[in-house]
Amino acid sequence: MENIWFPYTQMKTMSTPIQIEKGEGVYLYTKNGDKLIDTISSWWCAIHGYNNIEINDAIKDQVDKMSHIMLGGLVHEPVMEFSKKLASILPGDLNHCFFSDSGSVGVEVALKMAVQYFSNMGKRKSKFISFTDSYHGDTWKAMEVGDDPDYHKAFKGNSIPQNFYVKPGNIKQLEDVLKKHSEEIAGFIVEPILQGAGGFKIHSREYLKDARKLCNKYGVLFIFDEVATGFGRTGDLFVASEDLVPDIIVLGKALTGGYIGHSVTVAKSEIYEKFYSNSPEDAFMHGPTFMGNPLACAAGLKSIEIFEREDYLSKIENIESILMKLKDIDHPLIKEVRVIGGCGCIEVADNKILKGFKDYCFSKGIWNRTFLDFAYIMPPYIISTDELNYVVETFKTWFEQEQKDVL
Asked: What are the pLDDT digits (tens) for 350-361?
């Protein structure tokens, strides 16, 4: 373990990680024999839980044929079928799929795509608008559009160009920025409706519809980062819909059911056509080695099949109704409780109340990992009513009994 450099932590002072031997359904099994309900879906991606037999078999069948093949000059059936399926479930003419190996790289692709889209038309537009407290990944250009110093403070300032940031919901602020700077702005990138690592803040669909109109008016591309929100997390399959179609959408995390790291950046035909010419200079010169990996595509196809067949949107509706009980928790240090779809978040006014919370959950057979001022639940969609009620009651007990005198 001493050779592993772990994420988002000070290695010198971190607690010893819990060693997991097996996953089954919503449960993680530790080396020491503990059984834990996973309430955060391994960073929001394991929507079917663990060890799903159908996805396991899809990957096993594919690995017997080939585990990987490059998309440079070659193609294979899983990536063709997966692209076709994604285009069929996405709204409008979001139908040109560019695959990558992580959500962050998928965002990187979208930003580069937006800049070159205008470059291919002879325009120089390289800046972006994003939300305050936004997080779009840790690769270099994704950091440019992020506004979360807890993740990227070492690189802000002179190291990363400064873009424009607006508050979610403030449409006047957005238009003011566009009026002054639209000639240099390539795109407005948003985590639609639900921000993730920035604190699970929620804004309205109506705001996004108004933003869509403004992007059209000022000639700026509208980009949805649905790496976290896609595949049901907000209660809909995607935030993008027939009455709210972005120019580019990025999907990841649950794209493969949480089995294999992969992402896809999907562009409208209008975007794609600006790269489609006889000129080599107009081509999009980007190509992750493992883009369109056959194993990832096989897992993704089976994941979507299960999602549709088992009516996961109804499961998510039930999850939301149970998570609403978080709003009944009473403690003076709770600042706000936010719930949408398969996500529930408790924001506290002082994170001292969360000290020891992870260990408490562990003692109750629950895996949960708070960060900053937030305790949250984003469970696999297969979690049962009884299991989720137990998790919510554990949260309630912590705040109302274990920490009732903490002020």
From this structure: 999 999 999 999
User: What Cα–Cα distance (Å) separates residue 148 from each residue in 133, 155, 228, 300?
Assistant: 5, 11, 16, 30
For the segment 88-116, the average pLDDT, to the nearest whole number, is 98
**Catalytic residue list:** 8, 135, 225, 253
Tokens for 377?
A: 């639940």
- Is pTM beyond 0.85 here? yes
Supply the pLDDT for residue 158: 61
Q: Is the separation of the CB atoms in 280 and 286 below 8 Å?
A: no
The CATH number that domain 21-51+311-402 falls under is 3.90.1150.10
CATH placement of domain 55-309? 3.40.640.10
Type of residue found at 302: K
Q: Which helix (H) or strand (E) holds 306?
A: helix 294-309
Q: What is the DSSP letter of 22?
A: E
For the segment 108-117, what is each residue's pLDDT rounded down to a tens digit?
999 999 999 9
263-268, strands of its sheet edge to edge:
94-100, 263-268, 248-251, 221-226, 185-190, 127-131, 164-166
